[in-house]
Amino acid sequence: MRRTNVDGTVMTNNVALDVDGVLGNFETHWRECAEEVLGRPMRKANEQHSMGGRYELTNKEVDAVWQAFHATEWGSVPMYDHASELVLALEDLGCTVWAVTSIDERHRSARAESLAGLIPAGRIVCVGHAAHASAKANVLRDLGAVAFLDDHPANTNAAIGSVPLSVLLDRGYHGLEAPEYGVTVIDDVMDFPVLVESLLKRTGRMPLAEAFLRRTERMA
Ligand SMILES: [Mg+2]
After folding, report:
1. What is the largest CA-CA distance in the chain?
2. What angle do CA 208, 118, 142 make, to 5 degrees?
3. 43, 55 in Cβ contact below 8 A?
4. Which 3 state secondary structure label does DSSP give 95?
């Protein structure tokens, strides 16, 4: 049994995830790239969000690292151990999982490569490396997404009003804006599917039969 909309189309619960810092360990990969490009070990100086600030690099050094990173590294950003558990937990709830990521469109296939099938290329939306936080909010609105998870408060703040559940994964970065009223803050990524499940139940969007079937299929 599939839950359908009034016009007979199948109800889709789209859920959007940021990639870097949420699914993929961007920081480690960028730091290793910096060590290679700059030829010295990187020592974290503080908890700033910007990589140059965190490792006290000059603008010129940051530019050199980014140039190398953009050229070859997007395809090999390693996924966190929790990445597949997170995506599968959302799929078990009957959700369709999208990646909404602040990288340029030209890196989309590399991003798909690093996600290794966890989220297919057709469900990766690239809003651009220098995009304003509202760019992700616009994508969420276009998708009709029910929930969004990101580790940058500017993105989750901008998403309020564009998605019923905007969730910040708090990585403890310093110097960023505070999460606004309306954003849910978590520090364990696996709290996200729990929040999504209660939202779906509360709003009558939970395709129970489908979730049950998927879970049984996986366990078989
Ligand atoms: Mg991020």
Report:
1. 61
2. 70
3. yes
4. strand
How far CA 219 is from CA of 58, 93, 176, 193, in Å, comes to 52, 15, 42, 19
In words, the CATH class of domain 13-25+79-219 is: alpha beta
pLDDT tens for the 220 residues of the chain, in order: 455 655 565 678 999 999 999 999 999 999 999 999 999 999 999 999 999 999 999 999 999 999 999 999 999 999 999 999 999 999 999 999 999 999 999 999 999 999 999 999 999 999 999 899 999 999 999 999 999 999 999 999 999 999 999 999 999 999 899 999 999 999 999 999 999 999 999 998 887 655 566 667 777 6
CA of 213 to the centre of ligand 1 (A): 32
CA 184/CA 195 separation, integer angstroms: 9
> How far does the centroid of ligand 1 lie from the alpha carbon of residue 148, in Å?
12
Structure tokens at 4: 């359908």
111 C-alpha to center of ligand 1: Å?
13
Angle between helices 59-72 and 26-38 (to 10 degrees): 110
Q: What would the two tokens of residue 70 be?
A: 């953009």
**Do 134 and 158 form a contact (C-beta atoms < 8 A)?**
yes
User: How far away, in angstroms, is 218 Cα from ligand 1 center?
Assistant: 29
Other CB atoms within 10 A of residue 181 CB = 7
What predicted TM-score, i.e. pTM, was given to this entire model?
A: 0.90
